Amino acid sequence: MFSIIQAAGWPIWPLILCSIVALALIIERFSSLRTVRVAPPKLLDEVIAVTRSNLPAPDVVSKLAANSVLGRVLATGLRAVITEPRISEANLRNAFETAGRAAVHQMERYLNTLGTIAAAAPLLGLLGTVIGMIEIFASQGGASGSDPQQLAHGISVALYNTAFALMIAIPSLMFYRYFRGRVDEYVLDLEQAAERMVPHLLRFTSQR
C-alpha cells in the first residue's frame, strides 16, 4: 500500500483524507439513521395508548424525548398541550412543524459533506491526472531524450489518482443517495405521526 501511495505522488494525499472522512461519515450516519433511533415502529401507538385517558407526567415526557427522533417530536406536542391547556389547533400544529424541522436538520447532518466529497473526489483525481501528464511531457524534454523513470512516475501518478478518486466518489455518491432516501422516508413517518397526534391531543384541550 505504501508503495502505491509513493507511486501516486502527493496528489493522492487529499484523496486519502477524503476517503477517511467519507468512511467516518458513512459509519456515523448508518448508526444515527437506524430505525430504532429515529422512528421505532410501535412508539406512536404506545404513546397514544398511554395518553388515552390523561396526559403523562413531565418525567415521562422527558424519557419519551430521549427515546428517538420521533419521540422528541411527539414530546414537543405533549409539552405544548401541558404548558398551554387551551392551545389552538394552529399553534399545536406549529409546535409539531418546528420540532419536525429540527428533526430533519438533525437527520440531514453531514449529508452535504458526504455529497461534497462525492463531487470533489473526481476533480481531485483529475488534478492528479493533470500533474501526471505534466510529468510525462516533462520526461520527453531535454537534449538527452526521454527519462524512462520520470515517464513511469508520471503514468503512475495519472492512473493511480484517477482510479483512487473513482473508488472514493462512487461509494460516496451511492451512500449519499441512500441516506437521502432514508431521510425522506423518515420525514414522511414523522408527518404521519404528527397528523395522528394532533386530533388525539386536541381532546385534552377541549376537556379543560
TrEMBL record:
Q: Which intervals hold domain MotA/TolQ/ExbB proton channel? A: 66-191
* GO biological process per UniProt: protein import
What name appears for this protein in its UniProt entry? Flagellar motor protein MotA
Q: Which residues form the signal peptide?
A: none
GO cellular component term, pick one: plasma membrane
The entry's keywords: Cell membrane, Cell projection, Cilium, Flagellum, Membrane, Protein transport, Transmembrane, Transmembrane helix, Transport
Q: Where in the cell is it found?
A: Cell membrane; Membrane
Q: Keyword check for Transport, yes or no.
A: yes
- Membrane topology per record: Multi-pass membrane protein
Protein family (similarity comment): Belongs to the exbB/tolQ family.
What residue intervals traverse the membrane?
A: 12-30, 114-138, 158-176
InterPro entries linked: ExbB/TolQ_transport, MotA_ExbB_proton_chnl
> Main location per UniProt?
membrane
Q: Carries keyword Signal?
A: no
Q: Which organism is it from?
A: Caldimonas brevitalea
Q: Which residues form a coiled coil?
A: none
